[in-house]
Amino acid sequence: MALARYYLVRGRSEEAAATLRAYDRIAPELELKETAGGYLFCQGFQKLEAGETAAAITDFRQIQKQSGSFPGAEAWIGNAYYADAQFDSAIVYYESYLSNSHPLKIYNYRNNLAKTLAALADSYERTGQPSPAARYYQKLADLWADADPKIRKKAERMRKEAERLLGEGS
Fold this sequence. Notes:
By secondary structure, the protein is mostly helical. The chain folds into two domains: about 1-70, no CATH class; about 95-170. It has nine helices and no strands. Helix 3 runs antiparallel to helix 4. The N and C termini lie far apart (about 50 Å).
């Protein structure tokens, strides 16, 4: 499953699909599909990429119910709501993801933090909440402050966006 997840999050969906088909061929008797967090993540990710946000949310929520199975489930539920322009719901799940603690949080942050901060800031902005939007744009700018020059340019844009929003909120 880890290989399929690797392919999916790097945009290599054909290789991920082939890996999942191989999994289906060699392990159908294990009946892990309904309970394996990795398999459900792959299914949810593919559905999200196909624009099937409600189905993706269902898969990610099933993972979330499996305590400890996939600590980043809240971020992915937030991503699905964000993709579906349900910004209030996205905010709830992104905030939950950022506030929950678990042993793999630093690993999850490596994969999800920047996207979560950007989408959370944008969600707050789209729902007419400039102060929290500015706070998360600033956090994203701080996260990228010491990155390579190309990313530092993005960080500066995020910082300016935060300043603009704080100016509007006054």
